[in-house]
Design a protein that fits this description.
Layout (H helix, E strand, L loop, with lengths): L1 H15 L3 H19 L6 E5 L6 E10 L8 E3 H7 L8 E5 L6 H30 L4 E10 L2 E5 L4 E4 L15 E12 L2 E7 L3 H11 L1 H4 L4 E8 L3 E7 L7 H6 L4 H9 L4 E6 L4 H8 L7 E5 L4 E6 L4 H5 L4 H10 L2 E6 H11 L10 H13 L10 H38 L4 H10 L1
Parallel strand pairs: 2-3, 7-9, 11-12, 14-15
Antiparallel strand pairs: 1-2, 2-4, 5-6, 5-8, 6-7, 8-9, 10-11, 13-14
């Protein structure tokens, strides 16, 4: 029996990775539970298993008293000295009460308790193991789907990939191998719960550590990172070695390294920028790929006023402000972006050369009215349409007048011919005679 016991413990240690001492302690607790259930004994019982021989002994712990009132809890001083000659009143004496055979019920009870303790020890071991691996990348198989969460098989246990930790455009298939980032390990009544993520910014950092040897070796350092998972990310890198280009090391030959990471993230765009101690330079780099003309810092409220060329304004802001948000996250500064034209208008406004506001219009109009009284009346200025209309009207009037004159002239000529050929009347003859 002892050989079988040791063989079973050795097998469990190899398969489950649980130390022998934990298994022996679990077995001792199981035997105590079985003994109390099947034998009328004192409440205080201890079971000891010899680690060398495998011998099992049961001890009942009794209090030494002068007059015994409870046989299962107390022992007289005379009887106690048989087991412990140096004992005194009030001491606790252990008396061996090992039964010859626990029986089938006792063995079954012991088996159940041992299994439970082994399961608890295994859960504790898994919890400690994965707690130490928090913020690391782990690979597993997609096992099943619970609602919209994905359950991933990690071998010894399972992990959950919540819907909020999944890439927006990503779809998972059962049996597919997937890389995830251990973001949290919780201890629950059902055992350790491992929460993994594919949207965590730490996942991006770990991917670069795996893909770029310079980062893994510490030659290139990741200073900061910002991410909007599934869309765009920014990574600030730095190297204390002046001969090393940190951005080029991360990009790789023909962009091979950054492209591999982008493919793992389902096409997520990644901007790699150079970190700088100078805040102005760092913020300008953070707005990459846009070109920056000038950066002005307001240290009181930790804000940066950034001026970019007019044709770079939309690029600096990004789609729905994405580039500006990521630049603010990675730099830690509030970023206010304006174009060169907008910045110039602000400058003019500051020195009073901009257009007056509506509140100043009344005063301006008063000055203009006084000035108008002191100068000659303004000459009416007509636009081209009015001039063309007037010319057309003038030409029309001239044409009409010419036509009217022609008609009048035409009517008068026949009358002259008629008067030349007609004889004078009697009145006309008399008038001619009087004139003569």
């Amino acid at each position: 029996m002892n050989k079988d016991l040791f063989a079973a413990i050795d097998s469990l240690e190899k398969e489950k990775g649980i130390s022998k001492e934990i298994l022996f302690e679990a077995l001792e607790v199981a035997l105590v539970s079985a003994y109390k259930r099947n034998f009328q004994s004192s409440p205080a019982v201890r079971v000891a298993i010899d680690r060398e021989t495998g011998d099992i002994k049961v001890f009942s712990q009794l209090k030494v008293v002068e007059d015994v009132e409870a046989d299962d809890q107390e022992v007289s001083l005379y009887e106690a000295k048989v087991y412990e000659p140096r004992c005194q009143l009030g001491d606790i004496v252990e008396m061996e009460v090992t039964p010859k055979e626990f029986g089938r019920i006792a063995a079954q009870t012991a088996k159940q308790v041992v299994i439970q303790r082994i399961r608890e020890a295994e859960r504790e071991l898994i919890f400690e193991d994965f707690t130490d691996r928090t913020e690391e990348i782990i690979t597993g198989l997609v096992r099943r789907f619970e609602q919209r969460n994905v359950i991933i098989d990690l071998g010894r246990t399972e992990a959950v990939l919540p819907v909020e930790e999944q890439l927006p455009q990503e779809r998972y298939r059962q049996g597919e191998r997937v890389k995830t980032f251990i973001s949290e390990v919780k201890k629950t009544t059902k055992g350790p719960q491992i929460v993994v993520s594919r949207t965590h910014v730490g996942f991006l950092k770990r991917l670069f550590e795996m893909e770029v040897p310079e980062i893994y070796e510490g030659i290139v350092e990741i200073k900061a990172a910002a991410r909007e998972a599934g869309h765009r990310s920014k990574l600030a890198v730095y190297s204390s070695n002046p001969d090393i280009d940190p951005v080029g090391a991360c990009v790789g030959t023909k962009g091979s390294r950054v492209q591999a990471i982008s493919n793992e993230l389902k096409g997520e765009k990644i901007d790699i920028i150079k970190w700088s101690e100078e805040a102005e330079e760092y913020i300008a780099n953070a707005l990459s790929p846009a070109k920056v003309s000038a950066v002005t810092l307001e240290s009181d409220n930790r804000a940066a006023i950034v001026v970019v060329p007019d044709n770079q304004l939309s690029l600096a802001i990004g789609k729905e402000g994405q580039n500006a948000r990521l630049a603010a996250k990675i730099s830690g500064w509030k970023v206010d972006i304006s174009s060169e034209t907008q910045n110039a208008e602000k400058g003019f406004s500051a020195i009073g050369l901009a257009e007056n506001t509506s509140e100043d219009h009344d005063d301006e109009n008063k000055v203009l009215e006084i000035d108008f009284d002191r100068v000659d009346p303004p000459v009416e200025v007509k636009d081209d349409a009015e001039i063309l209309t007037e010319e057309t009207e003038t030409e029309t009037e001239e044409v009409a007048e010419t036509a009217e004159n022609e008609i009048i002239s035409g009517n008068e000529e026949p009358e002259a011919e008629d008067s030349g050929g007609a004889e004078p009347t009697e009145e006309e003859s008399q008038k001619d005679g009087e004139k003569a």
